[in-house]
Amino acid sequence: MGTLVQWELFAQAGVGLSTDDEIASRGAIFIIVDDVAAERHRLQGLGIALGDDIAGDYSTLAQVRDPDGNMITFATVPSPPYPPAS
C-alpha cells in the first residue's frame, strides 16, 4: 500500500504508520492466521462476520470493524520476497 510504511520488529509483531484516512483516523490491527477461511468459520460461530477475502500482494486478508469503528484485519502468513525498502 502506497500510504503505509511497516517495520517488522520481530517474528510475531511489527508497527506501521499510514496516511490513509480510514486507517489513520481510527485504530487498526493485523492478526496473522494460518487460514483465513478457518478463522472466518470460527468467528461466524461467535456471531462475527468477516468481509470477503482480499487478495494482497503477499497474503490473503479479511476484515471486520469493531463496534468503535477500528479495523481488524486477519491475514495469512505473508510470503516473501518483499520489495526492497526505498
Strand order of the largest sheet: 3-6-5-4
Q: So how many helices?
A: 2
How much is the radius of gyration in Å?
Answer: 13 Å
Q: What is the percentage of strand-forming residues?
A: 35-45%
Class by helix and strand content? alpha+beta
Largest sheet: 4 strands, mixed
Order of helices and strands: EEHEHEEE
Number of strands: 6
Task: List low-confidence stretches.
Answer: none
Instruction: Please tell me the overall pLDDT.
Output: 82
Give the proportion of residues in helices: 10-25%
Shape: globular
Cα distance, first to last residue? 14 Å
Describe the structure.
The protein has 86 residues and is of the alpha+beta class. The chain is built from two helices and six strands, in the order ββαβαβββ. The strands form two sheets. It has a four-stranded mixed beta sheet with strand order 3-6-5-4, with helices on one face. The chain is globular. The two termini are 14 Å apart. The mean pLDDT is 82.
